[in-house]
Amino acid sequence: MSVLLTSFFCIPALAQKNIKMTFGKSGVITYDAKQKTIAVTQHGVNVFSGAKATVVVNGKTIAASSYPDAVFAKVTINDDLGKGLKYTLTYKENSKPTVVQSFLTYNNKDYFITQIEILGNGQKVATNYIAPLDLGKIAFDKIENLQTVFVPYDNDAFISYNSKKLDTIAQNTSGEVGIIFNNASRKGFIVGSLEHTVWKSAVKTINENKQASFSAWAGYSEKENTRDSIAHGIVKGDKVASPKFFVGYYSDWRNGMEEYAKTNRIVEKPYVFAWDKPTPVGWNSWGVLMEKINFENTTKVADFFADSVPEFRVGNTAYIDLDSFWDNMVKGGFTGDFSKLKEFADYCKKKGLEPGAYWAPFTDWGWKDGPNRKAEGSDYTFGEMWTKTGNTYFDFDGARAIDPTHPGTLKRVDYVINKLKECGFKMIKIDFLGHAAAESTSFYDKEVTTGMQAYKVGMEHLVNALDGKMLIYAAISPNMATSRYVHVRRIACDAWKTIEQTQYTLNSVNYGWWQTYSYDYIDADHVVFADVTEGENRARLISSVITGTLITGDDYSKDGIWSKRAKEWLQNKEILKIVENGVAFRPVEGNTGKLTTEVFEQKIGNNWYIAVLNYGNMPKNYALPLERLGVKKGNYKLQDVFTAQNIDVKNNSINLSIGSKDARLFKIVNR
User: Considering the entire predicted model, what is its pTM?
Assistant: First the structure.
């Protein structure tokens, strides 16, 4: 962010005298000079208190409380977030590094940003732990009223979000962002990292003797979440800074999460080229055809989309995306003859469609065949490129990671991407990107010491190689760090057709819908209609529509119930209008554990849309007060988006029945 600073003043913080720093309309950060802790109030509510700053430098834990009085300063700022004030607390002592904690506040924002810098004073700083807010005590509500959410670091291994009652657990650690809220009132507190090119960050929520507290820190590594088997890398320099952390309390936690996502995109701007085309829709081969793709069946799929569903377009565009095994069309493997693949791409274009491909650029799937295999694009071997974790290597999902900073890896990226560009592909689905963000004991580039630094090197190189020629879609990948590099990101792990897979995917929309504002689009994976009930088909389609894009996945080279459904549903103008908007629906409830709210809502222009999903094995009746949905009281009827049938809304409540394993999508219209 560009920043304009004007110095105001600088004074020692007097012992036992509190300092107040204001933000937004009513926010106050209070620094307790005696305890050297932070408390925050907003809207007259005590949000938290007692949060301290803690760092680990050169192996030693140092708390702000171990320093003499801090020096307090204030300057005006004018940056991409707006006009405001930057407050700093500087801790100095002989033989210790200098620690500077900053608070960036804005006149019109209901949040503030905090960051810690460590200065070596002539000595090198080495750290893998910086906590700007440690052990802050939550004060805005009773612990028995509060939920906290486990937010995964990525979307791999069929991981789920998990909303937990805080009084029933000892602690919960989330990747990058922490959420604590009252589901009934929706009042909630959010703290999360805004920068992801150096550090992996986390927020821990703690229940100790029914006192809720939280800690936010940079330097997170946990096998069950980040997939790392070793500690977070050491960050070194004359000066080392934590990422900036967003901190805010909101009357509706959903508003807070959306503001957090939007702020991420401003503070850490996209590196990928700007997407100025419509919402992507189309087809991906991993839905049904999988490893069986060939020129014949995929061109028949293209025929189906060109001839049988010509209205299934947004902005006259649909993508026909080949997933893994497109090399079935390449004689001699990646170094062979790509002419048949180019013929496929040309065929799609002649049909008015955009061809897409797939690749996992930072993985070696053939690692069991030994280290001496030559990598495409150079004379390096795969063994030279493997990501080292001590005496072993980073293996996950059956694939071995290759070092994103190694010249062999980067030359391989150039080689494969150039081949796909020469074929004329207009979209690429990239996968298993978490392998590029793994911590390593030794990267090829010795200036790179953390997984996120390596991820930046690899992903920026990939974006440069693509040179603005393709829509970039990320499948398995880190949730927050990937937004700099891609246009579309799949919100969860793989999903196909069943109601269980629909519910699994929507769990990530329930608690991760806000990422719709970090990316151009988020996606619910390929929608498959084959071999399940009509209700499950409808629910699966709705799950995609309310996430933001619409990618299908059946074998449309053959006729079946899936082609009937596609002709009827994929050309529905009201559905396509929602997809064109491209923004994920909001969850109505946030207390579902690893499961999923049954109701999502979205306002598009002046129209409200409501999705209601019954994941169960029995029909279910619903009574949904308009107030809970955020809809003003009035005279309305529900219009079924699939059938155009109407249901009257009586007494400002939506009352309806939905069959087992089924769903409905409604537009609320005035009577």
Answer: 0.97
